[in-house]
């Protein structure tokens, strides 16, 4: 289930009318505005990187030791780069997030300044430093190569006019003396102009994708791990509390209500039909029976008794037998499934079959239960009209939330006209 996204350069590149749209000019503006920032950063990297490479090359080729002043300069320069990079990256990242709107207007969360110490301890800050290295080390090289290709193409296009001079002109790998000899090369050069114009967009799209990847919000690994563990603890606690409520209702309230219903039934037999108490007693008896049915449904909604009695495969087959359309069940479960996963899988099948009955106009459905590695895979398909949309209140959003709480994921394929396939993958760690 995906929400509609704003158009951006990466999607515009797939449009046949890309070359005559505004996107190539936006890409050009993005790259031109990148040049001064990348140039300044590359100078900073070269101040330390170039002497370092030269020193390493001298040691490797001639075996000379690095002079002490040079070693001291390299050490201090490296420490300065590493020390100031997290601070500089904060300002550069803020500018880059703003500039990214030229080629990718999708919102990119901004990071708040949380103090100097946080700049040296958070993973997000060091991802911004990595973007600084990319911007100052890789981007200039790509720009120079692209500029060289553009200059070569310009030379090829203008070669017929240059060949009219007294001197010989070298066009690619050939030497031309007359304009006529250069015309075929000029034609190829003109044909390559749209390719270079398109390549400009590819470079901008790749740069924007790297910026979004490195500058986007990324929780620290430790925090993300703790969130995952806390969610697992909450799910386990919820399941334990749900089982306790089910046990109390099933073992305490339900037997007493059943006994009350029997006593009222016996009392009805002892009271004459013409007695004033006969009618109120009959109403109370019917209400008790209705309440017993309701309580049974509540207990069934907490954890289906069929799961306890028949396990997952049997409970799903019971759902299939009760469905309004013919349902075929294929179950290949060779290992036990954790209880909370069983419950989630049962609800997936139950809600999916309800959707088939109410919304799909299907004539048949199929349920598959398989185990792939340490995951339980549940697939529910039907031959209905398709077009399932979570926004229309078909229960898919709540189902996706339930699956996500169990650590799984839900995939939906439902093109207009059908068929519809709901696939759920649930982890089975015991």
UniProtKB/TrEMBL annotation:
It catalyses: ATP + protein L-histidine = ADP + protein N-phospho-L-histidine. InterPro entries: HATPase_C_sf, HATPase_dom, Put_sensor_dom, Sensor_HK_TwoCompSys, Sig_transdc_His_kin_sub3_dim/P. Residues 241-307 form the Signal transduction histidine kinase subgroup 3 dimerisation and phosphoacceptor domain. Residues 346-428 form the Histidine kinase/HSP90-like ATPase domain. Residues 72-215 form the Putative sensor domain. Its EC number is 2.7.13.3. It is an enzyme of class 2 (transferase). It comes from the Bacteria. One of its GO terms (cellular component) is membrane. The chain crosses the membrane at residues 27-50, 70-95, 129-162, 182-206. Keywords: ATP-binding, Kinase, Membrane, Nucleotide-binding, Phosphoprotein, Transferase, Transmembrane, Transmembrane helix, Two-component regulatory system. The keyword Transmembrane helix applies. GO terms for molecular function: ATP binding; phosphorelay sensor kinase activity; protein dimerization activity. This is histidine kinase.
């Amino acid at each position: 289930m995906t929400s509609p996204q704003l158009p951006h350069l990466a999607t515009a590149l797939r449009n046949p009318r890309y070359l005559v749209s505004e996107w190539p000019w936006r890409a050009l503006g993005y790259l031109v505005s990148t040049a001064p920032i990348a140039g300044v950063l590359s100078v900073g990297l070269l101040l330390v990187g170039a002497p370092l490479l030269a020193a390493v090359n001298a040691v490797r080729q001639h075996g000379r030791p690095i002079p002490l002043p040079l070693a001291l300069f390299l050490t201090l320069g490296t420490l300065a780069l590493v020390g100031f990079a997290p601070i500089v990256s904060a300002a550069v990242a803020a500018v880059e997030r703003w500039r990214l709107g030229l080629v990718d207007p999708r919102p990119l969360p901004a990071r708040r300044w949380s103090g100097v110490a946080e700049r040296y301890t958070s993973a997000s800050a060091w991802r911004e430093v990595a973007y600084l290295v990319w911007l100052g080390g890789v981007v200039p090289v790509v720009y120079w190569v692209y500029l060289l290709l553009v200059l070569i193409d310009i030379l090829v296009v203008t070669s017929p006019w240059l060949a009219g001079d007294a001197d010989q002109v070298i066009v690619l790998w050939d030497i031309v003396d007359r304009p006529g000899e250069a015309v075929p090369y000029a034609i190829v050069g003109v044909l390559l102009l749209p390719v270079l114009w398109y390549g400009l967009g590819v470079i901008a799209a790749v740069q924007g994708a790297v910026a979004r990847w490195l500058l986007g919000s990324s929780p620290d690994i430790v925090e993300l791990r703790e969130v995952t563990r806390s969610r697992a603890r909450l799910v386990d606690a919820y399941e334990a509390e749900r089982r306790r409520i089910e046990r109390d209702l099933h073992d305490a309230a339900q037997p007493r209500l059943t006994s009350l219903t029997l006593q009222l039934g016996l009392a009805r037999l002892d009271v004459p039909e013409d007695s004033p108490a006969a009618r109120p007693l009959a109403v109370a008896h019917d209400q008790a029976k209705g309440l017993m049915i309701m309580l049974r449904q509540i207990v069934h909604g907490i954890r289906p008794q069929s799961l306890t009695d028949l396990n997952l495969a049997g409970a799903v087959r019971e759902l299939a037998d009760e469905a309004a359309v013919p349902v075929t069940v294929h179950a290949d479960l060779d290992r036990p499934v954790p209880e909370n996963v069983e419950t989630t899988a049962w609800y997936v099948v139950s809600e999916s079959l309800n959707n088939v009955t109410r919304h799909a106009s299907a004539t048949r459905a199929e349920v598959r239960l398989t185990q792939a590695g340490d995951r339980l895979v549940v697939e529910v398909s039907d031959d209905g009209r398709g077009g399932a949309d979570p926004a229309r209140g078909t229960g898919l959003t709540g189902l996706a939330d339930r699956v996500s709480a169990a650590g799984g994921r839900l995939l939906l394929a439902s093109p207009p006209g059908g068929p519809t396939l709901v696939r759920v993958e649930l982890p089975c760690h015991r």
